[in-house]
Amino acid sequence: MKSAVETLNPTRVRLTVEVPFEELKASLDAAYKKINQQVTVKGFRQGKIPARVIDQRFGRGAVLEEAVNDALPKFYTEAVNEADLNPLGQPEVDITELKDGELLSFTAEVDIRPTLEIPDYSGIEVTVDAAEVTDEDIEKSLEQLRDRFATTSPVERAAAEGDIVTVDLEAKVDGEVLEDGVAKGVDYTIGSGQLLEGIDEAVTGLEAGGTATFTSELKGGSAEGKEAEVKVDVTAVKARELPALDDEFAQLASEFDTLEELRADSAKRLARMKKYDQATQAQEKVLDELIKLVEVPMPEKLLEDEVNTRKHNLEHHQLGQMGLDLAKYLEIQGKSAEEFDAELKEQAEKGIKTQFILDEIVNKEKLSVGQEELTEHLMRRAQSSGMSPDQFAQAVVEGGQVPMLVGEVARGKALASVVEVAKVLDTNGEVVDLDDEDETAETVEAATEVVEAAEGTEDKTEA
User: Fold this and answer.
1) Which CATH architecture does the domain made up of 151-241 adopt?
2) Is the pTM of this model over 0.90?
């Protein structure tokens, strides 16, 4: 077999392949065998029809077509390997010559991974938020904890913001009660904004037994988007009572004996969270700067496929789970279809560039992925997908996605290695030290999450 490569542009090549006819022998034998099993000829047992009879009855052309279809993938793969190419997606194959008993010639156009030059990235400098824990942060954390341990009790007074009211609702459109517009015994916290627009004003000031009506646009159901007249009957008013912030509360809400111990632990926990957020912010900003440094030719077909995949996943998975269609989503976001398409293309380009650049660094730095790192990554992905680790692992193996997961972790390690040599300052001008040996695995996994977000990998896997 002879092959030649013509570079059409930095991301696309045309392979020209010539195959001596004798190399088709195995595929021709397989073609005769396959046709033998599919046809019947009087006077011959199925599977025992001579080749010359098949040629006479069904035509040599049918056999050749079957043989070529069988052989093309093998010859294409051999040509790709011989030229040391990294193809992206499926090739466009055109048979240019087929001489029975002499020669098979074909061309294959395919997108390829571009060759990248990775410049010195040690000069990257980014600024991130300072990881400061204020007294206000600590008090807010304690208030959220108090809120989780709040109790409710009925009160005989008018409802006010923060109270929980039990209500019966009846919605009318054009004077008719909707079939799905009646609900009874609904608990609602005044001021939460989690029910209908206008209900807060309607129930505030009402005691148990009080009634009010208000107009609101329906957010779901058979009359979604229509203005409805809603009648609300308050059947009960309950006040929320927060526990006192003292040692007794600390013992109730935690393993600590005193409020001061609980406050100190909250400060430590918040510091860890802010440090993690700071590291993530650094990784995101360093990745953006790295992408600016590297010239990445963009394979147009790959970009088109990536845009379509992201749009499909958004429409048929993410929005579907929220009960929205694309038009409603764009309305909520306040975007036009053109703005949405432009943003999607920009995100897809960033995802492709991220993968190409970090893969190049993986190869350049000879980074590898250990079993422990892969297992930790698999556990996190399983958790985010709502599956058990065993179920997720089985789905990954059956779907042939193990190499993809390995690639994700490797790219996370590549990004972490770039961040390690970058200069990271906080908003106070202080140098941020992200090189904590005790948190190396956590840092790599955080970097992997940043890479996934840029590539849109997690959405595609779940879809």
Assistant:
1) Roll (3.10)
2) no
